[in-house]
Amino acid sequence: MGEAQAESDKAAAAILPHYNMWDPQHEKVKWGVFAHARRNCPVAHTDADGGGQYVVTRYEDVRRVLEDPQTFSSTGVSPRPSPVQLNPLDSDPPYQVELRRILNPLFTRNFLLRFEPELRKNATELIGCFIDKGRFDFIREYAGPFVGNALSRVVFNEDDPEKMDHAAEVVIRVAIEATDEAFFELAVLAGQYIAEREANPVDRNDVLNAIATGTVDGGRPLTDEERLGVVTVLFLGGLDTTRGAMGSIAYHLAREPELEARLRDPAWIRQDMDEFIRLESPVGCLGRRATRDVELGGVTIGKGEQLLVRFDSANRDEARFEDASRLRFDVRRSSSAGFGLGIHRCLGSHFARIQIAIAFDELFKRVTNLRFADPGAEVRWAPGIANGPEGLDLLFDVIG
């Protein structure tokens, strides 16, 4: 082991017992911390979040946890504070399965492609707002508003243009600001839409109708709190992850200009997108709770103790992926955990892929040569559940 590696391991070993995913300083060094953990302590206890938790870092251990909901429960471990239970994310079978049954048909690729014309129109309008400047914040001026508009259209499906614009504004504020006030405003708006749809049913195959009319437990309608929880999950999950994935791809484009040629080839959606998603893992982690005493990765975890399951660390596990910390398009990869694994695999993964493909397709019709506005400036990555840059100040050249 070289001197630099020894120093890196020493620093990582000091952080690991106190690792906190909400700490911006820990976010800066997390890849080194996770690599150290995978080599030395793959299931490591940290004293973060009061009572502490076990951080699960290796692919095989992550997969085992996610594929065994009987032993590793999702209840009572919401990834962020919320006034409502975040179903189906924060629930277990059979209830979780029933909720996914309600939503799954509305998040298939074929169903979502009906929104493609509107998504392309929105992308074009957003590009038009910064095209003459030659510079933009990719996150705040493009990815955030684009994803916010897309989600508000798919979830609220509002016919009134003014109401749709207002809904999009609220969602975009959450996408860009992520403040408690913005989330509260979104929750109020979602509650209003749910109440209106319940009071005035319409014969429409869309997300709100499915939530308003869906049943669980052998025919019981969802309560108002359950409905609000489902809508909240759709936005919390869909905003951060898709925006983060888009931002991560743009970051790599700015670092490695030769990647642009790959993304201009329509085949990249099928051949290369998964590798970007593996490396940066838009869904970074989720929590679990042990329902019994259990051994995992050589460590005994007691009943009731909590785990932080790191999808992103699993996706850089050298035992699973060759040259795991680099983009490698010439290597055939096995399935990654970029959108999760098991029964809680990301409901909106098809929608995320559609949005990413459209956003870059429309962008590259108008611009080329994405690059950092200030190559020496630090790019800050958002701490928390999802992975992605907080902002990305880029220059570009206009085509034509």
TrEMBL record:
The organism's taxonomic lineage, starting at the top? Bacteria, Bacillati, Actinomycetota, Actinomycetes, Mycobacteriales
Which family does the UniProt entry place this protein in?
Answer: Belongs to the cytochrome P450 family.
Q: List the source organism.
A: Mycobacterium lentiflavum
Q: List the SUPFAM superfamilies.
A: Cytochrome P450
Q: Which UniProt keywords apply?
A: Heme, Iron, Metal-binding, Monooxygenase, Oxidoreductase
- Protein name in the entry: Cytochrome P450 superfamily protein
Spans annotated as Disordered:
70-90
One MF term in the entry's GO annotations:
monooxygenase activity
Q: Which PANTHER family does this UniProt record tie to the protein? A: P450, PUTATIVE (EUROFUNG)-RELATED (PTHR46696)
